[in-house]
Amino acid sequence: MTSNAHSSRSFRNHPGAAAVALAAMTALLAGCSSSDDTSDPLAGEKAEGNTVVVGSNNFAESILLADIYGEALKAKGIKVSYKPNIGSRETTYGLLKNGSITVLPEYNGSLLSYLDPKAEQKSLETVNAAAKAKLDPKLTLLESSPAEDKDSVTVNAETAKKYNLTAQSTLADLKDIAPELVLGGSPEFQTRQQGMVGLESVYGLKFKSFKALDAGGPLTQAALKKNTVQAADIFTTDPTITKEKFVVLQDPENLFGFANVTPLVYKSGLSQEGVAALNAVSAKLDTKTLLDLDSQVQLESKDPLDVAKAWLKSVGLG
């Protein structure tokens, strides 16, 4: 996700349909999944005692990853509470800085772009080093996983057919077409470097208009499917891409950078045992696995907490 994404990955609301929208809502209301904390996620209270507060942004994949982190910590006997489905990076970063959240699933390159929009992203190592250097001193990044989920500009099947766009087509191929297209995405995508700002400055794309929807979630997916928008910010591990025959456009200039799933941590709130537990999760999580887990939640309507527990058990971390 560009989180500014992978937008926050940019910040998506990955729910693949009503099922995941329901899962996210249920998590928020503490009816199922991770949310055993019914307090206002924006209230900003610090965790009590030795409780580790695991937060998530407002999209399904983030909620799932938070469940994975939280349950991995619980397996080590660490007390955990959850603040799920909070909002975008613009909100959650502040809650991390003041200690209201202890752990948050992040996307390294997207986080760096948020902290320093002009930072170059040449390698995983340099991205993480640069992000750590820009972080508030109370925060740190743990080990990145091989799993990546990037923002993308994706077109629907109708648009792809009309303009002869394929999986090999690039964002540059939209330059003459963009004035005829409505682009959809989260409100933040409109003002982010890893969003419309970068699409214009890097690729020269000027779209007909922008429609504010959600962060890659059911609103964006539905608008793209119905052709209300012809292009949209969709996250690359979104299973609806294959289901709806959407076409993801290549990003040869690497505007959307790196987007490795990485725990962002309030340092004083997590023990070394907790650090080790989350690093062990990162070592086991790859992109293929993440897509499979996302599909279980978004297409099969499984509870993200159940999916998290089953996967952790399968890799010896539950």
From TrEMBL:
InterPro entries given in the database record: ABC_Gly_betaine_transp_sub-bd (IPR007210)
Record domain ABC-type glycine betaine transport system substrate-binding: where: 51-313
GO cellular component: ATP-binding cassette (ABC) transporter complex
GO molecular function terms attached to this record: transmembrane transporter activity
Pfam family, one: OpuAC
Name listed for the protein in its UniProt record: Glycine/betaine ABC transporter substrate-binding protein
Organism of provenance: Streptomyces aurantiogriseus
